[in-house]
Amino acid sequence: MDTDAPHSMGTTIIGVTYNGGVVLGADSRTSTGVYVANRASDKITQLTDNVYVCRSGSAADSQIVSDYVRYFLHQHTIQLGQPATVKVAANLVRLLAYNNKNLLQTGLIVGGWDKYEGGKIYGIPLGGTIIEQPFAIGGSGSSYLYGFFDQAWKEGMTKDEAEQLVVKAVSLAIARDGASGGVVRTVIINSEGVTRNFYPGDKLPLWHEELEPQFSLLDIPSSPGPEPMNI
Amino acid sequence: MSKLEFDVPAKGGFSFDLCKRNEMLMKKGVQPPSYRKTGTTIVGLIFQDGVILGADTRATEGPIVCDKNCEKIHYMAPNIYCCGAGTAADTEAVTDMVSSQLQLHRHHTGRESRVITALTLLKSHLFNYQGYVQAALVLGGVDVTGPHLHTIYPHGSTDTLPFATMGSGSLAAMAVFESKYHEGLTRDEGIKLVTEAICSGIFNDLGSGSNVDVCVITKGHKEYLRNHLLPNPRSYVSAKGFSFSKKTEVLLTKVTPLKEKVEIIQSGEAMEE
User: Longest Cα pair distance anywhere in chain B, in angstroms?
Assistant: First the structure.
């Protein structure tokens, strides 16, 4: 086991717009090689009161980028005299990511609410592209979610629908991706403010072939066992 | 017109001149010198009144134990201590550097240092060196905003946790913490748990060993328990003792302690011109 391996966030990160704001979601696993260095990390970092960013990839690179952008946005807010827009925040992140593309290895999803455009999500993958999307997914666990979102996402969801979608998606990715795990954290941003939610592992739904929770393997299971898959 | 060539000194950056020579030596079987690492188990936890840090005391140079009782809990500020794992020179240098930066900052601001200041100074330095400064740190302290515990990785990423372990023995120590840690530990429970975690590292990890150091930091007070536990006493001392060969006569025995104790004498009056 290599404890000198760079600290990376295997990760599943999601950003979804809904009718009135955005919902950001992430898992909480940070790994160094195959060891889980932090099983309860917070990958949704605040940039300003109304803009948050989901971090994935190298932990060090994403922390430094978000620290710099928070600092630039703070100055920008003072100079502008009003809260920064999500577009400005996302572009600051994009400039850092693009201009240092040789040195950085981090994929980010910037999401927030401002009074001009409402709720917006911007995806900034490796390389420093910026793309405004109605929903964005990132991290190693996102590979398992493309089909899910193609089917499950729809325009004009309510806040609760959007949050449930995000929690369901992250827990599906956790079930299939070894580098994602722990708890599900969500952040809802709208005109009223910011709400942080926390879903511990035992509150998440179980998926195909996952064991029923048992307190001891000595207990004789009462259920007849998992049902065979139907084609 | 003939071209004049000057021998310009290198503008900076790495000089590759000796690389070919090193390669040739390695082919001939010469081993490069191994640097002193602290194999290490270092831990930290937050208890009800503050923070407790713990560390083992073995320093290794490759397979050899070069120091059986080294100090891995470094002073950063009166209210902040930092345990270091990785290359011993790197952990010493980076903690000393940030400790003096913090002292200057205290003089400038006139306030007690905050743990997050030390954290930011350490993480920016380590990030700038892209992981080549191999220092993995557990930083803990109590300041006006409360008790804080952070881990810092060589590449510059940090985590904020209620309990943390680092070093080669981190898995052994984390196993103890995950099974026994709970919120609201008392001071004695906390010290006992930290000692157990370090002992787990000492006995199950080859890179950790010797004794347990503990440091308890609470609001306005700190206790550095150097060698709190000595689970590996030297039990192989020969009964004969040491004696000089036949013709040598002992004329004078003088014992010099390695660490000088400096006594500050209270001066009577201030110097006057």
Answer: 85
- Distance between the two ends of chain A, CA-based, in angstroms? 40
Rounded Cα–Cα distance for residues A154 and A165 (Å): 10
Question: Mutate which of A7, A31, A35, A58 to test chain B, going by most B C-beta atoms within 10 A?
Answer: A7
Q: Assign B231 to helix, strand or coil.
A: coil
Distance from CA of A7 to the nearest CA of B (A): 7
Q: Cβ–Cβ of A40/B161 closer than 8 Å?
A: yes
How deeply is B215 buried, as exposed, middle or buried, from its count of CB atoms within 10 A (0-12, 13-18, 19+)?
A: buried
Q: Which pLDDT value is given to residue B20? A: 86
Q: Is A158 a catalytic residue?
A: no
Do B201 and B56 touch, CB atoms closer than 8 A? yes
Question: Minimal Cα–Cα distance from A149 to chain B, Å?
Answer: 31
Please say whether the beta carbons of B210 and B199 come within 8 A: no
Q: Which two tokens stand for residue A92?
A: 């600051």
Beta bridge partners of A107: A56
Q: How far apart are CA B78 and CA B112, in angstroms?
A: 8
CB pair distance less than 8 Å for A60 and B157: yes
**Residue A110 and residue A95: Cα distance in Å, rounded?**
13
Q: Which two tokens stand for residue B129?
A: 């060196």
**Residue in B closest to A35 by C-alpha:** B171
A100-113 core/surface letters (b: 16 or more CB in 10 A; e: else): eeeebebbbbbbbb
In the predicted structure, residue B147 carries a pLDDT above the cut 80 = yes
- Token readout for A191 is 């005109």
**Contact status of B156 with chain A (Cβ, < 8 Å):** yes
Single pTM value for the model: 0.80
Which positions in chain A touch B134 (Cβ < 8 Å)?
Answer: 4
Q: Is A100 on the interface with B (CB under 8 A)?
A: no
User: Residues A10-46: pLDDT tens digits?
Assistant: 799 999 999 999 999 999 999 888 889 999 999 999 9
Rounded-to-10 torsion of CA B118, B121, B127, B133: -70
